[in-house]
Amino acid sequence: MFIDIDVSQQKKYNQNAYGDYFVSKRFPETGRLLAVLSDGLGSGIKANILACMTATMLLKFMEEGTSIKKSCETIMNSLPVCQVRKISYSTFSALDCDEFGNAKIVEEGNPQFLWVRNGKILEPDFEVLTSKEFPNRHMHIYHLKLQTNDRLIFCSDGVTQSALGSKNLRLGLRREGLIEIVKNELSKEPDISSSNLAKRIVKQAILNEPDRLPKDDVSAVCVYYREPRNSVVFTGPPYHQEKDSFYAKALMDFKGKKAIAGGTTANLISRELNIPIRTSVNLNMGKLPAISYMDGIDLVTEGILTLTKTCEYLDTDEFQNDAAGELANFMKDTDCITFMVGAKLNQAHYDPNLPIEIEIRKNIIKKLSDILQNKYFKKVNVQYM
Questions:
Q1: In angstroms, rounded to a whole number, what is the distance separating the alpha carbons of residues 186 and 169?
Q2: Could you report the per-residue pLDDT of 245-301, keeping only the tens digit for each?
Q3: How far is CA 121 from CA 128, 150, 179, 226, in A?
Q4: Can you tell me the distance from the alpha carbon of 142 to that of 139, in angstroms, rounded to the nearest whole number?
Q5: CA distance 354 to 348
Q6: pLDDT computed for residue 270 by the predictor
Q7: Do both 219 and 289 map to the same domain?
Q8: Residues 6+ apart with CB under 8 A from 147
Q9: Residue 42 in contact with residue 20, Cβ under 8 Å?
Q10: Chain centroid to CA 31: how far?
Q11: Total count of domains within the chain
Q12: Range of 311's domain?
């Protein structure tokens, strides 16, 4: 199974920093995923620092091999108490899961997560661990076995307490209101992505406010266990020309969406498989060369220029209606991306008249891989040919 995870956040009205902090890390070689959502005391810069410190320390403990229970217990016993409000400097939800459906969850102070299966909310058993240093702090520890299409929803109290004291929601949205939002969205779109579901939860929480302004930091993290959506990007001719046919066939036999980045590469595939290339007549593709078409291939673009711009778009999360925007969306819409990267040098890449930001293909793929893994939580595999 693939773990589709994403977060949506909104700052408290009139604040310049997020008081909630989310961090995660994926380990492709083992299929493990770690994630932490922390809610700092108050709002603004102070809350941001407290939440960031809690989340990053907790993730680091788990990453280095400390069990999630021990890691969270250490954090719970270490967080100081605000001398004015007499409550903890931050609260948190921590997740340690893998692609086989094994999940461990620890919550301290945050609203209880939702576990959704077939449109129903499951209520798992849990263990309660009380802090030895602060008797009013309690950790809830869960051990779950997830199935395909199961979902987990975590949030800060900015969601469950939205519209608190208002005429329609005097006690706030609460957990019951969050459940209603989630069920409603899933009934309309059963296969909704984690990204879109998280955005809609945050949007609805803010819309509950009478003046449509968030009175607290609002965060929602969604996890979706599903079958992976695979894609491949073939770019650059193979180092050994005698293997062109082998790699061309491997591309066409790939189970998933297919893209080619590079005119020379596209001509290679066309030649080896006897598939003609049709050039686009769309003249509104910005400064980049237009996309082309080949039967059996979902997207065909130019190479280095387009890959460089795609890297820029993904880094800023701002796309334009051009070939790089098409390629960026192609990558965002899949979960597991394989780059088939040819190692044969193209002398055109060393033309001193070309812009200085154009880099060797391998370096661009390395940047793309880092962005896709760290920012978009994708699984990336790079295969050099």
A1: 23
A2: 999 999 999 999 999 998 889 999 999 999 999 887 665 556 788 899 999 999 999
A3: 21, 10, 8, 18
A4: 10
A5: 9
A6: 92
A7: no
A8: 101, 117, 225
A9: no
A10: 15
A11: 2
A12: 230-384
Name the amino acid, one letter, at 50: L
Name the token pair of 231. Answer: 């894609």
Pair (216, 252) in one structural domain: no
For residues 307 and 359, what is the distance between their CA atoms, to the nearest angstrom?
Answer: 10
Pair 5, 377: CB distance under 8 Å: yes
Q: What distance in Å separates the CA atoms of residue 181 and residue 44, rounded to the nearest whole number?
A: 27
Nearest to 358, CA basis, from 366, 367, 349, 370:
349
pTM across the whole model:
0.79
- Of 226, 245, 265, the residue at which a domain comes to its end is 226
What's the CATH code of the domain at 212?
A: 3.60.40.10
Higher pLDDT, 136 or 281: 136
- How far apart CA 40 and CA 157 sit, in angstroms, is 11
Q: Yes or no: say if 110 and 156 are a contact pair by the CB < 8 Å rule.
A: yes
**Cα 203 from Cα 201, distance rounded (Å):** 5
